[in-house]
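Tokens as discussed.
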């Protein structure tokens, strides 16, 4: 069976984590969120966690080499997976290239990039709200939030072009109820499955 590998893309606060939950449930996929994995490493006080924290606290990207290596080792832990939801990865051109090469070496590839589109004002409001419950240091500080949005616009948004050039990019309106947005994602995925 061919694997269904989806990149769930979008700025911080777009709803990638929330929607990933819906997608893994419906399609029985493995959810790989690089942010979640870094946070688990911070909690576990690993060397990787210490390194990642120094970047995450500023809203900067963890270096590509470290992030790519970690992602590949996580994929390798699930040889039987039906496919993966990549959430928060790739975030740079180098990560996108590495992911394609890696998946190709496993005789698979990305089916689609689904990009949640949410206006910047709405993102700011959501992150402010999330800060009340997430316990995330990077949600609590407006300067760090701004930096994450800037990093997204400068370094991550161009990754969409990489997938667009392959005919794999699909924008999805990321405003509405959680269920409405899920339905849009399901429709988009069902075109590729
Ligand atoms: P997220 O949970 O996706 O919002 O990610 C939180 C933070 O983790 C980001 O601001 C980055 O510091 C770091 N991070 C997560 N994914 C990546 C990635 N693919 N490349 C580099 N840094 C990342």
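Sequence:
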């Amino acid at each position: 069976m061919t694997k269904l590998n989806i990149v769930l893309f979008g700025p911080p606060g777009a709803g990638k984590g929330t929607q990933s939950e819906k997608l893994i449930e419906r399609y029985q996929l493995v959810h790989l969120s690089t942010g979640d994995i870094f946070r688990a490493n911070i909690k576990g006080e690993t060397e990787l966690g210490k390194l990642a924290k120094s970047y995450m606290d500023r809203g900067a990207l963890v270096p590509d080499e470290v992030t790519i290596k970690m992602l590949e080792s996580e994929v390798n832990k699930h040889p039987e997976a039906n496919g993966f939801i990549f959430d928060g990865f790739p975030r740079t051109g180098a990560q996108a290239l590495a992911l394609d090469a890696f998946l190709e070496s496993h005789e698979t590839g990305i089916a689609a990039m689904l990009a949640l589109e949410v206006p910047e004002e709405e993102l700011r409001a959501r992150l402010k709200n999330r800060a009340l419950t997430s316990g995330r240091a990077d949600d609590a500080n407006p300067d760090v939030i701004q930096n994450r949005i800037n990093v997204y616009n400068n370094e991550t948004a161009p990754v969409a072009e990489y997938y667009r050039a392959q005919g794999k990019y699909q924008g999805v309106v990321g405003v509405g109820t959680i269920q409405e947005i899920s339905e849009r994602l399901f429709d988009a995925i069902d075109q590729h499955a």
